[in-house]
Amino acid sequence: MTILELHRVHKKYLQTDQFAVNDVSFQVDKGEILSLVGESGSGKTTLLRLIAGLEHPDSGYISLAGQKIVEGKKSVPANKRNVGMVFQDYALFPHLTLLDNVKFGLKGKVSDPDKLAKDTLSLVGLSENFSKYPHQLSGGQQQRVALARAIAPSPSILLMDEPFSNLDTILKDQVREEIRQIIKNTGVTAIFVTHDTRDALSTSDRIAILHKGYLQQIDTPRNLYEFPVNGYVANFFGRRNELLATPTKEGFYSGFGFIPDERSRLFYSQVRLCFRPENVRVEKTDQQSMCGKLLKSTYFGDHQLLKIQDEEGKTIKVRANAHTIFERDALIFFTVKQFQVEEI
């Protein structure tokens, strides 16, 4: 069931010539977690504000729970949209207890706000902290209070702006999984903005990638990573290798050697072979004798990244075992396990 629909939405701010959001259309299903990712200025925060009612689009329409909340000059006010919002800095009231923070958004909406606030705080794992104040909590706990306040009124959709950006790396991994589980347990539909690809890949059911106001691709994390529709999407999740190669009946010739592959018969001119560092196995075989000179090895604990150069000076990066010692300028033999072929 579709909860949110955006149809050909445009938004341009007065002080700029370019659209912040340009002809964006997509749907979000009930219970889905969608992340909006992109560089600064890509339009992701503007989209969130348009859905929340904090901005009005120049054209297009937005439907929420079967009701058009924006079309033409007509717009349902932000406080009438039944949208929950978690801000980047959590926006908790410092002078109110956790219970009163959650109850604040329930005034006049439910018959027993005290019970609902307590139940919601218990749901997010804060059942013993009702009387505490925000400054007495950790960053992760403050975020859960903000989440409880947003979901207590049973919103049609939950919007989160950079929800994990204020957390340190160690805490972020833990909180990210907790927040996802809480959202899934409540069944609420959620959209969050993030610049962190790790947050998006690990938390989202689908990811929408924006670039200069345009929606590039919206898909599952796996499909975006393994089957990107263009180079921008591919490199957004970490640089991929791109090799120029010449097709023959048996495979592809590149500066690093020959790759046997039947797909080569489908092409008649030079192509681009695209693969990620982890799609390479550092080994020497009789079937695929590719090799290059090692320029640099960077250690990451659980693996190392090798920068390899061919005789023409072209370079690629490959992932290797963390325990193997490689000497600079050594000849590195490798095989490519998986790659895409693109016409030039």
TrEMBL record:
<dbReference type="InterPro" id="IPR003593">
    <property type="entry name" value="AAA+_ATPase"/>
</dbReference>
<keyword id="KW-0547">Nucleotide-binding</keyword>
<protein>
    <submittedName>
        <fullName>Putative ABC transporter ATP-binding protein</fullName>
    </submittedName>
</protein>
<dbReference type="InterPro" id="IPR050093">
    <property type="entry name" value="ABC_SmlMolc_Importer"/>
</dbReference>
<dbReference type="InterPro" id="IPR008995">
    <property type="entry name" value="Mo/tungstate-bd_C_term_dom"/>
</dbReference>
<dbReference type="InterPro" id="IPR015853">
    <property type="entry name" value="ABC_transpr_FbpC"/>
</dbReference>
<dbReference type="GO" id="GO:0005524">
    <property type="term" value="F:ATP binding"/>
</dbReference>
<dbReference type="Pfam" id="PF00005">
    <property type="entry name" value="ABC_tran"/>
</dbReference>
<dbReference type="InterPro" id="IPR017871">
    <property type="entry name" value="ABC_transporter-like_CS"/>
</dbReference>
<keyword id="KW-0408">Iron</keyword>
<dbReference type="GO" id="GO:0015408">
    <property type="term" value="F:ABC-type ferric iron transporter activity"/>
</dbReference>
<dbReference type="GO" id="GO:0043190">
    <property type="term" value="C:ATP-binding cassette (ABC) transporter complex"/>
</dbReference>
<dbReference type="Pfam" id="PF08402">
    <property type="entry name" value="TOBE_2"/>
</dbReference>
<keyword id="KW-0410">Iron transport</keyword>
<feature type="domain" description="ABC transporter">
    <location>
        <begin position="4"/>
        <end position="237"/>
    </location>
</feature>
<dbReference type="InterPro" id="IPR013611">
    <property type="entry name" value="Transp-assoc_OB_typ2"/>
</dbReference>
<dbReference type="InterPro" id="IPR003439">
    <property type="entry name" value="ABC_transporter-like_ATP-bd"/>
</dbReference>
<keyword id="KW-0406">Ion transport</keyword>
<keyword id="KW-0813">Transport</keyword>
<keyword id="KW-0472">Membrane</keyword>
<dbReference type="InterPro" id="IPR027417">
    <property type="entry name" value="P-loop_NTPase"/>
</dbReference>
<dbReference type="GO" id="GO:0016887">
    <property type="term" value="F:ATP hydrolysis activity"/>
</dbReference>
<dbReference type="GO" id="GO:0015697">
    <property type="term" value="P:quaternary ammonium group transport"/>
</dbReference>
<keyword id="KW-0067">ATP-binding</keyword>
<keyword id="KW-1003">Cell membrane</keyword>
